[in-house]
Amino acid sequence: MVKTWIKSKFPSKTFEQHFCLEHEFHGVIQHHISETFRIKPITPLGLQLLLDGIQISDPSLHLKSKILVNADYIKISMTVIDPAESKNVLLQLKKSLVRQLIEFEDRFYSSPIVQYVEPFCSQCIHYQTKPLNQCIATCRFELKKHAQREPVQSK
Question: Is 42 helix (H, G, I), strand (E, B) or coil?
Answer without folding.
Answer: coil
